[in-house]
Specification:
Blueprint: E1 3-7, H1 11-23, E2 27-31, H2 34-41, E3 48-52, H3 60-67, E4 75-79, H4 84-93, E5 97-100, H5 105-123, E6 136-138, E7 141-144, E8 149-152, E9 155-156, H6 161-171, E10 177-179, H7 180-187, H8 196-213, E11 220-223, E12 227-230
Parallel strand pairs: 1-2, 1-3, 3-4, 4-5
Antiparallel strand pairs: 6-7, 7-8, 8-9, 10-12, 11-12
Helix pairs in contact: 2-3, 4-8, 6-8
């Protein structure tokens, strides 16, 4: 049973969403501010966190920043209808997805399931030998899907589930262009709609992390109006 942490200062959302998730077979823990959630996470991490952005004591952005210092577990943001800046900033900081309020609880459940399936595959609960699970070497890049491990020039790079999947999709065929639609298919289920800006934000975050270990990293090329390409170095 997967453990989901739900963090929101709206008690109605905590109650209704937790009831829905429990009915779907999840174990749910609820927190009404970021500091309370962080205190609990320091003792035991959940399998996934769903975070509101605007909360007292510690908001979702601050909590995400603290989490990314020690874990790459999937994180979904709950954002207000017009908070486009917060959405982009959250994705750049390492969130895997966002859902706008008011939201369909069914949609939220589907997004949670999609990210958990990928997390399970990457963490090794899916152990069948395939192209998606083999260790991949591309020039300075090494990716081990079953251990969710990435190295660039023998230096570790910590990626979220979505960032890992996007890099893997690009690096599997160096020199070939992947459109944004193709990358959406890699990172999200068919029933989950995201726009181009979401993929672009993930790619920007991915590049930033790679450049933190190598400021000359340039393997991911943008082809404006077309998509992205991985160039083996």
């Amino acid at each position: 049973m997967h453990k989901i942490a739900l963090v929101d200062d709206d008690r109605n959302i905590l109650t209704s969403v937790s009831m829905t998730l429990e009915a779907e077979g999840f174990e749910v823990e609820t927190y009404n501010d970021g500091q309370a959630a962080l205190d609990a996470f320091n003792k035991r991490l959940p399998d996934m966190a769903v975070l509101d952005i605007k909360m007292p004591r510690m908001d979702g952005m601050d909590l995400l920043q603290r989490l990314r210092q020690k874990t790459s577990m999937p994180v979904i943001f709950l954002t207000s209808k017009d908070d486009e800046i917060d959405e982009v900033l959250g994705l750049r900081m390492g969130a895997d997805d966002y859902v706008k309020k008011p939201f369909s609880q069914r949609l939220l459940v589907e997004r949670i399931r999609a990210l958990l399936r990928r997390q399970d595959a990457i963490s090794g609960e899916v152990t069948d030998e395939s192209e998606d699970t083999k260790i991949m070497q591309r020039g300075h890049l090494t990716m081990d899907p079953l251990r969710h491990a990435v190295k660039w020039k023998d230096r570790d790079v910590s990626l979220t589930v979505t960032e890992f999947l996007l890099l893997q999709a690009l690096a599997q065929r160096p020199g070939f262009v992947k459109s944004r639609d193709q990358l959406m298919d890699v990172a999200y289920d068919d029933q989950v709609y995201v726009d181009d800006r979401t993929i672009d934000s993930h790619i920007k975050r991915l590049r930033k992390k790679m450049r933190q270990v190598d400021d000359e990293f340039s393997a991911i090329e943008t082809l404006y109006g077309i998509g992205y390409r991985y160039n083996e170095e």
